[in-house]
Fold this sequence. Notes:
56% of the residues lie in helices and 3% in strands. It is mostly helical. It has helices spanning 3-6, 9-65, 76-79, and strands at 98-99, 108-109. The chain starts with a helix and ends in a 7-residue tail after the last strand. Bound molecules: zinc ion. The site of zinc ion has 7 residues, from loops.
Amino acid sequence: MNDDTNSPSPVRTRSYLRIAAWVAGLVVLLYVLAVFVLSNHFWHAMPCEHHLSVIHYATEAWARDHQKSNSDVPTDSDLFGPGKYILEKPRCPEGGVYTLSCVTNRPKCSIPNHND
Ligand SMILES: [Zn+2]
């Protein structure tokens, strides 16, 4: 009887399949994790970044229109409201609070990773 040398393939194939299943499971796990991380960061942080950009443009327009210096900081009533630069003050989709800034700095969201 010399079964070990001639027919190890079923055992070996089974272990390859097990490794392949582990790798596939790992890939699926990484994929799900990546989708979760990306969706959390981009789908929520991007609109906030967009809001900050819009507020920044409004700040630049306000400074230009009112001959303000680069260090002047507008108030909410300078930028937001009927007849102002933005009809309604944008809100962070995750509840962060926006702080206006001067022309040379971007406005800030109170949620730190929204300012990246
Ligand atoms: Zn935000």
